[in-house]
Amino acid sequence: MFTKLRPFLIVFFISIGTLFSQQEKGIYGIENWLSIWTDFNPGATTYKTPTQILSGTITEDTKLLKRETYLLLGNVFVADSTSLTIEPGTVILGDFKSKGSLIISNGSKIIAEGTQTDPIIFSSSRGIKKKGDWGGIFILGNAPVNKIDDELVLDYGLKPSSTELVRYGGNDVESNSGILKYVRIEYAGMRTKDFGYFNGLTLAGVGSETRVENVMVTYCQGSAYQILGGNTYLSQLVSFRTRINDLVLNYGAHASINNSLIVRSPYFTQAGGASSIYLATYANIEEADPSKENTHLNAENLTLLTLSDDLKADIKIGLVSEAMHVKEGASFSINKSIFSGFNPAVVLDKSITINAANLDIMEFSNMYFNNCNGNIFTEGYSNNEDLENWYGNNIFRNVYSKGSDSETFIDTKNLKEPDFRLRINRIIASSLLDDE
């Protein structure tokens, strides 16, 4: 019996290995890692009335407990090298009236380590929740930033009692600001008159010992994730229906991002469009220190997807923008990723000269560009022949397709339990079993 089954088992495991090697693009996992801890419809969830208030400046090690519900009142700072520890399953509600925000000052830590079955939740205090109901989370570290100033101040109008509470940046590439794991951030991104929109999660000068994984930002009025300088490793991030950008890197940020998901919606994006990923090295070249490193993104197994009821119509009326926008000086290496349903897939700033030196630091390999209205363009130019020839070279192994969402992904319709992994064909037992 075993002798007869052995050829089948060998072929079976070879087939399994081949399918996984062929379908390794985009988010991956033998099981759907989005299960249980995520919530793609947080507006339907009702949280308990707050029993505790967080306000002012926290200067002693503090632990938040699951049995309580906390109201984040105004701008709350964690300072003086203290730690804020949050139990799995704890709910913290950002106050709508005072636009609550949480700021982890340079030298302090947040230890927010939820679990798959008990995530930590930051959400809105309102019964009927809307984007921008509260501020967001800021983590300030001591890693390098490429601005000229030695002492950088986070300029969001947070009104700290001392500027020391909002300083960031330094020389410690490996600095540790704590951990965010199995954390949801919902309805953040308030708008301010003088400082624009807050973001769901801002990492400013954060070092590589800081752990950020399994974090979900939903319905953010600003950008979901903003990384200012620093050296970060992030894994299994989710951004869902963000209004502006999903991921912003600037000021010499060095970030490695793995196995992460961005889901855009034409009906929740700001007028005029916004990129899923926005890479820049400076806002103004005069403020950048040329002796310091430029921004670089190293990413693998990303899935960027626009969910639309009618993608062609939404593109035609200008509701869909590019997946990625790259400014002068920024570089990237993106591998095994999916860009699906964008207009176009990538836009390079018009100031970037298309030559060998620049193309060598802007790498796309093993990509799956699907259902995009054009692939890679220079801003303001309709002729992208040079870029198409470069990235279309067989050595990069990039694939271009026009598959529907149902053909491309396992399940994008059921937002109660979605599965955005790339669809793979079922293995059907062959006639080798007939030899038994």
Automatic annotation (TrEMBL):
It comes from the Bacteria. PANTHER family: LIPL48 (PTHR41339), SECRETED PROTEIN (PTHR41339:SF1). This is Uncharacterized protein. It comes from Ulvibacter antarcticus. The lineage of its organism: Bacteria, Pseudomonadati, Bacteroidota, Flavobacteriia, Flavobacteriales.
